[in-house]
Amino acid sequence: MRSVRLWLLFVAVTGLLGLTACGSFFSTCHMCPPVPKSQHFVYTANAGGNQSTVSALSASPSTGQLTALPGSPYNTGSGSIALASDPVRGRLYVVNSQSGNISGFSIDLNSGALTPVASSPFSAESGMNSLAVTPDGNFLYAVSGSSANLWGFSIDSGGALTPTGLLPTLITAAAANSSSVVIDPVGKYVYTITATSSTASIYGFSRDSATGTVTPLAGFPVAIAGLANKAEFDRAGKFLLVTGTNEFGTKGGIEIFSFDSSSGSLTLVAGPVQVGTDPAGAALDSSGKYAYVPNTADASISAFALDGSSGALTAVAGSPFASGGNGNINGPLGIAASSAGAYLYVCNASNNVSVFSINSGTGSLSAIQGSPFPDGGSGPSAIVFVP
Asked: In 3D, which of 27, 89, 90 has the Cα closest to residue 56?
């Protein structure tokens, strides 16, 4: 249940317990050197302790093993619960829920080290809980768990954020909060998961690539089952995966929507399919064949084969898999997959990251040697893999 994940986050922030929704994140850029293919990094947003942070770890391309980078973790704002990367210029952005702002960092593409962007952090509003960067790296959008506002920022060449003239804009007067914002792989559309006290829906917007302006799409909102919380596009950009709580009693579910790139419309094609209790998002492996859902309250990972034509889901043999971590309360709060190779990274409530190898033929998961690896921060609640 969503309340379970919020409770885990609360005890981390209060110090009672340390806790912990990709393709190639970097494309050709004339403003920065190409990312060395031998270098991979994992970053986590850490909400707990007296000082929220972001952790930086190197990921071995051959073994998947993680090593904390010198200087990690880096200070952010208060309540760092989500993060996103700039796919073009090598930036990392962390949303700080309690301090109501966004921290920006430049990524050293050789070492993975982070340097704060000038003027960071950038003001937004309290309760910010999800953000996404456009594929061209020029704009960032964010939503809040305290309102139904959609925020938009332009990103300059140095990585600084400037609010767009039209935003924040009210997604709908009928809703109370939002839990997720995603952008289609081409960058034409923005989607939010926005809810009232008892229902949740998807709201869609077209966007002007030059100004960042958003315009509501016809045919929305689209109803979704349960209290949906996170959304993620598949690697091919054909489907939107949406996870939610309380869709099968206390168990959560996942729904698959086909995506029309010409109109932005979404059509339910599969689900809801049952997962565990309190699902916290979804991730696709590098081939796009398998989808994984971390279940916070169950300390498990639900695994499915995704049909690339129909969007149908088929449970992987052995699913759900134990999420790893240490101690009795170790539920996963974030998940990411390597952009090449076959590794899955899960940040746990026990202040560490579990790493699994993915069987390319079956989709089954096996913990690698040394897993879980220390995160270095308190309360890792979100994770990304770069590049």
From this structure: 90
Looking at the domain covering 2-386, what would its CATH class be?
mainly beta
Q: Are 368 and 343 in contact (CB under 8 A)?
A: yes
Judged by DSSP in three states, 3 sits in helix
DSSP letter for 69, please. Answer: P
CA distance 195 to 336: 25
The domain segmentation of the chain, as residue ranges, is 2-386
Q: Give the integer Cα–Cα distance in Å for 140 and 120.
A: 14
DSSP result, 195-229 = E-SS-EEEEEEEE-TTT--EEEPTT--EEESSEEE
Mean pLDDT of 82-91: 89
Question: Stretch 129-149: mean pLDDT, rounded?
Answer: 95
Give the predicted TM-score (pTM) of the model: 0.90
Measuring CA to CA, which residue among 166, 224, 156, 215 is closest to residue 189? 215
